[in-house]
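REQUEST ID: PR-0412
SUBMITTED BY: lab tech R.K.
PRIORITY: routine
TASK: structure prediction, single protein chain
INPUT:
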Amino acid sequence: MKINQNLKNAVEAKDIKGARASLLGLINKDKRLKEFQTPLFAKYAEQNLSGFWDKDNGETKFPAKDKWSSEFWESMCIELEYNFSKEKFEFIISLMQYLRDSSHEDFLYKQKAKPTKTDDDLLRYVILGGIAGGAIGLIGGAIIGKTLVGGIIGSLVGASGGYVSKKVK
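STATUS: complete
OUTPUT:
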């Protein structure tokens, strides 16, 4: 796994606050990834940065699972910011997993939408139709003495025809 560059830079600079800040930001991104990466990033920081974790202050109250929510997750992240203990961090990861397993919408994996082959094909038809229509329009416009107008109208008609011919298939 590739280590986040901001975290790597902070660790190399022996910047504990910077490494912790990077990890806090990564926790927020992690909740939407297919697999949580933050535990591996934390392990990297722990192994390469002496004093990365604070001693847990014991002040955190952990309610029953039926009280776990995204609001509770947010409050735990704030607590982690003020007492950056391994115990709080590991609890947050468990909490994230619980919320994902419970199908909480803020913690579900969101795959980035990629253009489909159909979208690429449609664009190709529109462009080719526009080029062909423009060429025909230029010739027709030259015959009547309106070359530019013929080219523009031909391009629009050709692009529309390309769009329609692909959508009708």
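NOTES: The two ends are 44 Å apart (CA to CA).
REVIEWED BY: pending
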